[in-house]
Design goal:
UDP-N-acetylmuramoyl-L-alanine:D-glutamate ligase, 9-stranded mixed beta sheet, 4-stranded mixed beta sheet, 38% helix
């Protein structure tokens, strides 16, 4: 049974989020329109979908705590330092030894023929297990947020589903960004089954047209799948359509919203920033439609700047951007 809109609003108003999933290091080309293979230098930043969402929330004034694993090496320690920098609580980030390594992303600050290379072989975050999630004080948080990559391998998959169970028992809404990354999964069939299971357990689901279509078996069926989830299990479903905006389905109605026109430097980070803006907006009492617009504004700000977490806005920047767009 779907959580009522009132119950969801009451929990989110705590403005304290438990975020499950990876943190990693990003290398991005130093300067626009440079191919990675020709780049004389790179900038570094924190990455990973869940960590980006957590950083975005903290920059917007929310509290966020991350649950994941990092490798016991310089890259893992860099990520821990970055979490501290953004104010993301890392009490539940476990450092592990052995062969697993913290993920690394190399991407270009360019749109045309954009290249992103992800190093996630034997990723440390996939080593998160049930012990990492079972002892958490779920009742102290307002919501649990995660992204689809946390389900792509074991033991992380089982741990994430156990976290869903414990969060539900504590009355927490579950916020799920589908975030399908084919390279992380053993097969598309496994991904379709697992992501569909996760979606059916979630109160707020955010995905793009291709991701909902994937869950439904064909892209043409994606919107019907989103409507089905909103009708049967979820309180809010947001069906994103890239430059065509989004359809928000909630309370038996559908609302179509647009995007903000900016000169984009790269496509990366938009979805993570959208989620941070959306959830912080709802937590701070904005209407659902306004919160979606705040999420869209955050996404526009991020694609127009280098990096992901470093590009996410603070409240003054977000408010000024939205005011400029409406003048």
């Amino acid at each position: 049974m779907a959580m009522t809109a009132k119950a969801l609003s009451e929990r989110l108003s705590r403005n304290r989020f438990l975020v499950i999933g990876r943190v990693g290091m990003d290398f991005f080309t130093d300067g626009p329109d440079t191919r990675a293979e020709n780049a004389p230098s790179f900038q570094t930043g924190m990455g990973g979908s869940s960590a980006n969402i957590a950083a975005g929330l903290c920059k917007l004034g929310s509290e966020a705590s991350l649950v994941t694993c990092v490798s016991d090496d310089a890259v893992g320690r860099y990520c821990l330092n970055q979490l501290d920098h953004y104010g993301v609580a890392r009490d539940h980030v476990r450092t592990i030894g052995g062969e697993p390594r913290t993920s690394l992303a190399v991407y270009e600050t360019r749109l045309e023929d954009h290249q992103t290379v992800i190093y996630r072989n034997n990723a440390a975050d996939f080593q998160m297990d049930v012990s990492d999630v079972k002892g958490l004080d779920y009742a102290s948080f307002g919501a649990l947020i995660t992204a689809g990559t946390v389900f792509a391998a074991e033991p992380s998959r089982t741990a994430a589903f156990r976290a869903f169970e414990l969060a539900r028992a504590a009355g927490l809404p579950i916020i799920f960004d589908v975030d399908y990354r084919p390279y992380s999964w053993p097969s598309s069939q496994v991904a379709e089954d697992v992501l569909s299971r996760a979606g059916a357990l979630s109160d707020v689901i955010v995905g793009n047209d291709e991701e909902f279509g994937f869950m439904a078996g064909h892209i043409d069926k994606g919107l019907d799948k989103a409507r089905e989830l909103a009708r049967e299990t979820a309180t809010i479903v947001i069906y994103k359509m890239g430059p065509e905006g989004a359809i928000t389905i909630a309370d038996g109605r559908e609302h179509r919203s647009g995007v903000y026109a900016v000169t984009a430097l790269k496509p990366t980070g938009a979805g993570d920033s959208f989620m941070a803006g959306l959830m912080s907006g709802l937590a701070n009492g904005h209407s659902l439609d306004d919160a979606v617009q705040r999420g869209s504004a955050c996404a526009a700000i991020v694609v127009a700047k280098p990096g992901c977490a470093p590009a996410m806005p603070f409240p003054d920047e977000l408010d000024a951007f939205m005011a400029d767009q409406t003048d």
